[in-house]
Design a protein that fits this description.
Length: 421
Amino acid sequence: MNIAVIGSGYVGLPTACGLASFGHNVICIDNNEQKLAVLQSGHMPLFEQGLQELYESNNSNIRFSGDMSDIQNAELIILAVGTPMSDDGSANLQYIYAAANEIKPYLQNGAIVATKSTVPVGTNDEIERIIDNPNVDVVSMPEFLREGYALYDFFHPDRIIIGTDSMDAFNKIYNLYAPHIAPEKIIHTNRRSAEIIKYASNAFLATKIHFINEIADLCEQAGANVDDVANGMGADSRIGRKFLNAGIGYGGSCFPKDTNALAYMAGKYGVQLGIVSTTIQGNYDRRFRIAERINEQIKSVGQNARVAVLGLAFKNGTDDVRYSPAIDVIKNIHHNPIYAYDPQAMKNASQVLGDNIVYEKSVHECIKNADIIVILTEWPDFKELESVTFGRPTVILDYRNLLDENIMQSKENVTYKRIGK
């Protein structure tokens, strides 16, 4: 097929490169001139494991353009533009509606417009109204790509949701994926169900994260171990172990905006989502409570303490710092300077953090002579601390429960603290 992908972000680029690897002709459209220049030079402007290599092995099937008229031969147009959170918690739809208006003049009869952007229920109805062409099908096809694992999720999806009442459109998209993905994973719904599936999925996962963080607080006061509790819970097939990892709360470009958008959407329909609302507030509060723990530790060590922070991205495997709980925690640490390291996210973090951050080039440089080491993102690189000899008293606040507790507690000069114990 001739496929156009509108938007070259964390959804658009893995999708475009993945479809190109299936042998399709893909053009990726973006109006950001700086990003476009990087793409046209043959480089990916964001970090996603394996993405650069996938592009290089399939670059004959993919090209990048800032000219919307280049989509005029496309049979499938995928909308993958941002839908950021507005001040009132709703999804900001200006970019996707602008994209719909921009593609409208170039759509051929029989084309399919598939929305991968996360959008509230009814948005695809409005896109259909904007396009105003009975010979073009508008389909809701939400994405489920985890940042850091986007390519794995593209090639090994749990499900492909195709929301449409048009059997012709469904069959075309089904045939796009069926040769590469188990057909039973392709689920057909109507458009509005597909729109809600995405929000409901993310809200449920966010709720699991907040729930285990609350249980971790209980474990700390009651003499229990949250890891044991999570393992015991997760052994129940109805619950599962995934997303029961206690820490500093969820972040990123999806969970915060999607939970807020779902609550806002429900309010418009007169429905109260109490669990979702509690999750939103609890997750917001958690990062400030974590920062307060760090501030109390600094007070006990002394204001001359050298504080090293490991982790700036909202999770490992990405350079994305949008709504990163690590960033919010750092902003609320009352200390100057703070030494920080992240394998991928320091450039992005430097654009949102203040001047009191000293960015180091490695784990070793960051923790050198540190009195307090704080782990805020679960990068495997940080397990290096398990083999370090500490020659001075050092407090390690492992707020991702990343390190082996037995190893760390056996080390001389180390006071090791973790979440939920």
